Amino acid sequence: MQIVKKQQRRIEVNLLAVMRLLWQKKWWILLAGVASAVLFYLASLLFITPLYSASVTLYANNSISTDKNTSITTSDMNASARLVDTYAAIIMSDPVLDQVKEENNIRMSTAKLIRHISITQVYDTEVFKITVNNPSAKTAANIANSIAEIAPGKIAEIVDGCSIKIVSNAKVPGIKSYPDDERTIAMGLVIGLVLAVLVICTIAVLDTRVKGESDLYEWEYPVIGAIPSFVGAERKETGGTANKEKSSNEFDR
């Protein structure tokens, strides 16, 4: 059965033939998917430097009060939430990061260090999280904790009436955050399956050989004549000749 056939001067895809072909080649398709997944995983191990993520959580308040009974209003909380972007800009500035590099003996430019740091606000509140990515799990945690210790003092020098407290310190991560092995394997599997299907379908479409009368019917070409198969006749003839020789030998005896 042909994958494509002509219908009234149009080329249409025979989906049933495609499904049958793919089912016949299912083991090759599966093998290609598994092989691709293995290659993607090995490539990630050999050519991608793993990164570890450590996070510290801070709480930002825009007012300082010596009176412990003073309550914080909703407007104060909203103002604190809006100031998170300001605090993030100060944290990413040279005065803070230069001191962080000095304390941790980091030999990289500030611009490169910034690419390894991200600051996100937690659910639009006055709480924000600083995440540091580094090939070393211990270094990532040390940098995050250093930022949490240095940033409040630097921010207080610039922003009047601010108060930042550490909610949770960074811990040394036990597993890498990038690359994700499960995602890498899944991506390799999908790509391998898709490529195998495309290759099989392409080969089938480009194969224009006529393998039987049914192929001509599907392309709407008339069948003028057919050459009969002589395989069965040859077998019968060979069998008859053998019987004759056997009878002749028995008669001679």
Summarize the structure in words.
With 253 residues, this protein is α+β, with helices and mostly antiparallel strands. Helices cover 56% and strands 15% of the residues. The chain has ten helices and six strands. The longest helix has 26 residues, at 181-206.
Give a topology summary.
Blueprint: E1 4-7, E2 10-13, H1 15-24, H2 26-47, E3 52-61, H3 74-82, H4 84-91, H5 94-104, H6 110-114, E4 117-121, E5 127-134, H7 137-158, E6 163-168, H8 181-206, H9 213-218, H10 231-252
Antiparallel strand pairs: 1-2, 3-5, 3-6, 4-5
List its traits.
single chain, 253 residues, alpha+beta, 6 strands
Task: Summarize this entry quickly.
With 253 residues, the protein is of the alpha+beta class.
SSE run: EEHHEHHHHEEHEHHH
Strand content: 5-15%
Strand order of the largest sheet: 4-5-3-6
Task: Please tally the helical runs, counting DSSP H or I stretches of 4 or more residues.
Answer: 10
- N- to C-terminal distance: 56 Å
Flag low-confidence runs: 64-69
How confident overall, as mean pLDDT?
80
Class by helix and strand content?
alpha+beta
Q: Fraction of residues in helices?
A: 55-70%
Question: How large is the radius of gyration?
Answer: 37 Å
- DSSP, total strands: 6
For the sheet with most strands, the description reads: 4 strands, antiparallel
Q: Note the overall shape.
A: elongated
